[in-house]
Amino acid sequence: MIRVPGFEGRRIAVFGLGRSGLTAARALQAGGALPVLWDDSVSSRMQAEAEGFAVEDLTAADWSDFAALVLSPGAPLTHPKPHWTVAKAGAAGIEIIGDIELFARALARLPEGERPRVVAITGTNGKSTTTALIGWVLKQAGMTVHVGGNIGIGVLALPAPTPDAVYVVEVSSYQLDLTTSFAPDVAILINISPDHLDRHGGMDGYVAAKRRIFARSGSALVGVDDPWGRDTAAGLKAGGRKVVSVSTGGEPADVMAAPGEMTGQDGRVDFAAARSLPGRHNAQNAAFAYAAARALGVPHDVAVEGLLTFPGLAHRMETVGRLGRVTFVNDSKATNADAARQALSSYDRSFWIAGGRAKAGGIDDLEDLFPRMVEAFLIGEAAGPFAARLGDTPHRISGDMQTAVGQAYEAAAATGREEVVLLSPAAASFDQYPDFEARGEAFRAAALALGAVPASAS
């Protein structure tokens, strides 16, 4: 755990007792603060009480007695409308912060020679893969590495800082909105495409939140394959900042990645051997990881070796099994069309499983990839709308995951060719599953139930 000093003996309101909220309360208490917790969920409040925390109905609390509000990233700060705790904190004139800001303040209080280094990663798509990839490469280089944040372990639950450590932290736009002093040594913006617009009041607010990662950062690594990234890089350069641009092609860049190869400051290297990182988007992720590692002093050859040995992440272009000539690929993390584009673009043809709770625009932006879909198998709430949008592209409404996997396999096997059954839903999971992980596991289970040999055994 990372202790958070600076609030000794002061009451801190903590709303939202999910992973980040409870972890923040523990870190604050360890630093001498007096956290006061509340959540709309009775079970969450009971868990907090069982840990010995003060649980108090914040709707009736005296907010003038609080030094700050630590707000869950899941609670809206500004849009569609501020959470009621935000209004109360504003009326009391107290600051509103999140777990990433507490992390930043904890590190800032360390003597300069004792501070660890921090790599922070954000973007609409690819955050988790890039975060895990950077962590892997740095660990292979022999560094003391702690990976967390919006991926896996909450940032304040990571091991206490030591001077030799590197924290590799995934941060969301929600978390960045709650920061004021976050100063990573290396800050990465992978890409930006429309997402979470309801929470940021539109695209301008969403982009502004993402750009906050560079407010106090050292090295700035920016993806320039979208207009918002290009504008971000240009703005940083105009302000005198040193920027490393990353692209998968089309734009001049300091670091360029293309399918099958990865280019860095030290030259072009063959990337085809990295079997766990297929596709143009993963070449971009690899370029970011390479550039981050080099910024931290990792030698070129060591960084490349780390990239080529990365085992991959679950639910992100994950090969889960093979049956005959059919490979099953789990990309359940693709919860919007832009993320699904990355997977669909990685294959010349696929038997595509898609659907769930559609986001704005549905699959409109994927029309140019429809010819690559041998057939689509549609599930969840979006099955009807997706079917209408696919038009003459072969498709059927399967309804549920098990049916879709079975139908997709039968159709793929019937061709007698090497084929891919690809789950890349282009929609949220919440109509049928609690999260994308559960959806991905359902896909894996359905493939194995057909007799597919797990990837680890093949």
C-alpha end-to-end distance: 39 Å
Number of helices: 15
Runs in which pLDDT lies below 50 for 5 or more consecutive residues are 250-267
Shape: globular
Q: How much helix is in the residues?
A: 25-40%
Q: Would you tell me the overall average pLDDT?
A: 91
Radius of gyration: 23 Å
**Class by helix and strand content?**
alpha/beta
Compute the number of strand runs. Answer: 21
| Beta-strand share of residues | 15-25%
Strand numbers in spatial order across the main sheet: 7-8-6-9-10-11-12-13-14
- Largest sheet properties: 9 strands, mixed
Strand-helix topology:
Layout: E1 11-15, H1 19-30, E2 34-38, H2 42-50, E3 54-55, E4 66-71, H3 84-92, E5 95-97, H4 99-108, E6 117-122, H5 127-140, E7 144-149, E8 165-170, H6 173-177, E9 186-189, H7 197-200, H8 203-211, E10 219-223, H9 227-238, E11 243-247, E12 255-258, E13 261-264, E14 267-270, H10 280-295, H11 300-308, E15 318-323, E16 326-330, H12 337-344, E17 350-355, E18 373-379, H13 383-390, E19 395-399, H14 401-413, E20 419-423, H15 436-449, E21 453-454
Parallel strand pairs: 1-2, 1-4, 2-3, 4-5, 6-8, 6-9, 7-8, 9-10, 10-11, 11-12, 16-20, 17-18, 17-20, 18-19
Antiparallel strand pairs: 12-13, 13-14, 15-16, 15-21
Helix pairs in contact: 5-10, 5-11, 10-11, 14-15
What are its keywords?
nine-stranded mixed β-sheet; single chain; 458 residues; alpha/beta; 15 helices; 21 strands
